[in-house]
Amino acid sequence: MDTARIGILVVAYNAAATLAPVLDRIPESVRGRVADVLVFDDHSQDTTYLVGLGYQSLTKDLPMTVVRHEHNLGYGGNQKAGYRWAIDHGLDIVVLLHGDGQYAPERLEDLIGPLERDECDVVLGSRMLEPGAARRGGMPRYKFVGNRILTRVENALVGTSLSEWHSGFRAYRVASLARIPFEQNSDGFDFDTEILIQLIESGQRINEVPIPTYYGDEICYVNGLRYAADVTLDALRYRAHKMGLGNGETAFSSQTYEWKEGPGTSHGVLESWLAEGPPRRVLDLGCSGGELAGRLRKLGHRVTGVDIEALPEVAERVDEFVAADLDAGLGDAAPGPFDVVVAADVLEHVARPERLLAELPGRLAPGGRLLASIPNFAHWYPRLRVAAGRFDYDRRGILDAGHLRFFTRRSFERLATKSGWRVLRCRAVGVPVEVTSRGARPGAGSPSWRWVAAVDRALVALWPGLFAYQYLFELAPDGPGSPADR
């Protein structure tokens, strides 16, 4: 990065005694290159703001902007204001520095250098990279143990291998901050965890550098137990969103529709059904990125994909793509004939699936079949949500926000029969436990999930109405003159 505009965001609260010494310790090599030092006083109860103004008036080699917030924004809120200032004023790099002296300004060069050399997008100062350094620097044992435990939990949930999640000495590429919704984060101390999760989700490159540990007379405003609970919940929420639970807002860069891996999932069962018999002509409705189509082509099938628009990766996975809005029906698109029509996780997204179902027999060759998968609204998860008065939509799954229709096995069979189909076979499948690996480190899968999957399969067999996550159907056109009867 050529002649980067560097900013140092000094977050300060009741730091009148420490602010000037912290600013004095900014090294000469950095003072000559920094575009602005932003001292953001978070409505302190002491003279922090006046100290900042005094330092600004007496120091000629350090460009400064001193701001006092009209009310206390909180640790996270103060950072939000600073990062928004950095974005609006065209800075390239911003370093977070605490005004209480807990972190060493002498190490600013170590944080800025990797960003200037374009080695990464985020640099985290870590007190844990050098074994034993944190304890030698005075970190209390209970804080050291808590830091290590929380870091391990967060790494496991978010899918990282960082040495420390809890250092407040960091440097960011401002363009990376501009790409994430950091202003939606907490105003509290868990802001540092939330912004790091967002940067990881958006694919930013992260480096760690060792920094010294220092514990002096600064006042700690962090409630340790509350902080531990907050950051753990942040990481759990992100992992849940990666798995498709909840509204998915923290997994904003992930695909909303992903392949469900495993032989016992709906995708796995459909693939196995289509592996039966010779290669056929397949119409894949709602093909999305073409993951299923690509697998079917490897089995020898010729696949025509249909969706409202072609995603970039779909062209190499289908033999032919047809753009069509399934809500409006197929019309003249994809006339066929086809040996198999696949509607995998599609019919629940259509406002009037009975109209589409009634249209499909005309696309089939003699003996043709429709393979469909639908979510089971009678599954215990939506039942529990409704019973608790907490019904809402999720990013994926049975309560996917894109679902327009909800089905049970009985209601779908009734709809299929009215639309001119008869059921040849039906299979209930359980929760796709394999999605727990989404967002995890490669190879970090736990054997315990295999036991969960085994128990879930047993419950599906025992009581499918309550435990079936999805139903899969093989359907044939019904009635005289249907392609199956010719």
Topology overview:
Elements: E1 6-12, H1 19-24, H2 28-31, E2 34-41, H3 48-58, E3 64-68, H4 74-88, E4 93-98, H5 108-116, E5 122-126, H6 133-136, H7 141-158, E6 170-173, H8 174-178, H9 191-201, E7 206-210, H10 224-243, H11 266-274, E8 281-285, H12 291-298, E9 302-307, E10 320-323, E11 338-344, H13 353-359, E12 364-375, H14 380-387, H15 409-418, E13 421-429, H16 448-462, H17 464-467, E14 470-477
Helix pairs in contact: 7-10
Task: Give a description of the structure.
The radius of gyration is 29 Å and the shape is elongated. Strands 3-2-1-4-6-5-7 form a seven-stranded mixed β-sheet, with helices on both faces. The longest helix is centred in the middle third of the chain and has 20 residues. The C terminus is likely disordered. α7 packs parallel to α10. Helices cover 34% and strands 19% of the residues. With 486 residues, the chain is an alpha/beta fold. It contains 17 helices and 14 strands. The protein has two domains: 246 residues, Spore Coat Polysaccharide Biosynthesis Protein SpsA, Chain A, CATH 3.90.550; 220 residues, 3-Layer(aba) Sandwich (Rossmann fold). The protein starts with 5 loop residues before the first strand and ends in a 9-residue tail after the last strand.
